[in-house]
Amino acid sequence: MTASATSNVEISSVGWRFDNTYTRLPDVFYAVACPATVQEPSVSVLNTDLASELGLDFSRLSPLAAANLFSGQILPDGSQPIAQAYAGHQYGHFTMLGDGRAILLGEHRTPTAQLVDIQFKGGGVTRFSRRGDGRAALGPMLREYLISEAMWALGIPTTRSLAVVTTGEQVYRASALRGAILTRVAASHIRVGTFEYAAARQEAENLQALTDYTIQRHFPELVNAPEKYLAFLKAVIDRQASLIAQWQMVGFIHGVMNTDNMAISGETIDYGPCAFMNVYRPETVFSSIDRHGRYAYGNQPAIAQWNLTRFAETLLPLLDADQEQSVAMATAVLGEFPALFQRYWLSGMRSKLGLQTAESDDLELIQSLLDWMQTTGADFTNTFRKLSDGPLIAEQDQDASFQEWHTRWLLRLNREAGPMESVSARMQAVNPAVIPRNHQVEAALQAAEEQNDLSLFHRLVAVLSSPYELAPESNRYRDPPPDDDGYQTFCGT
Ligand code: AMP
Ligand code: MG
Question: Is 399 marked active-site?
């Protein structure tokens, strides 16, 4: 048997259950694609925990078979690779896009009958590559792996990362970098931009086909709902309000909230220039190209609403036969977003402070703490965690305004039922001890890229896999960077 035939046999033992439901949409929604041949694929990281959740077992694969599989040199049985068509507003400007360096292998059915997309990022050129090379570099793919898995461990809806392989080829950016392919797993890759694409083509039947497909896949409970399309719009808005509130709770800054990077499923998607905030400062931006702070931490809720407005516009033809009526319906639903977001945010913030009941002064109590953090330059994550670790201990080393706030908080906590120890446990369960700190992420990626040393990376992935626990070895991962004022992230294309 040849090497590739051996791999083929091995790969069929993995447990894939492929379907290609997306290819049954009208063919304007995708283009057939084929993963590029690569010189010398080699597995860098394989997520065995995720694999078992998906009902997949890669343990019997030889290193060569695994490398061939995760670089698309050999396709799983039943896979029909495609690139998805989509459009998007990038920094406010509409463009036709599509998967320029992503290839969807198809959908895998998990043991719990969930359909998940299996997608390569960096798998080669497609019909939508425009001037791009269809490739990805190792650093950014490891970065997506690390941060998406950290988000998952934090309990925030997100796409996942199954594997990273190096291709044995170079990709040329500002300098020559090692090429890599990420295998991404997602509820789906349908974006606000997918709907914008359908709407821009002005083909009513195609728009409806996409909408019905998406409802069936992500909101099956709405299939027979009255005013189904309005209910769908509301449900998408609700998931985004909840998602963005969860980002705000942990200081996650997505960095490139273009409409093509907003998933209809409500998962966080596209980890390019994202990073976590250290000092609480709403205007925090890390992305080098976000010069005007459009995607700053404090702007994320407003940008989500802007993106959802673009989404609602695409659905107008389906909401009502009368255009004016459709606009009125969409406007009313969108108008509820700020209050909806605020409810999720306030409820999350109450939990962060150990509060289980609601009082009218809570918002003010939370805001005073945030104001104090901002004024004093306190670390967002560590402040909440310190409060969780010892809510009874007034911090002697803090200033008078903190002491005053702390007394108010203790009085407020005293009005909650139950012993103080349970307050601590409750708070520790929602206030992470560790998040991906920018300097730790950079150090791990640098060692991987420059010395081919993945030990720091693996250690960081392990620490971030239980962010709410404080193991002694996690302690040094809690420190904020010595200085993150000048920290910049890049899109990594
Ligand atoms: P992103 O900034 O990753 O959300 O990508 C925005 C658009 O640029 C998408 O249509 C991508 O497919 C495309 N793109 C990004 N990098 C490349 C690349 N190296 N080659 C081709 N297309 C790319
Ligand atoms: Mg994108």
Answer: no
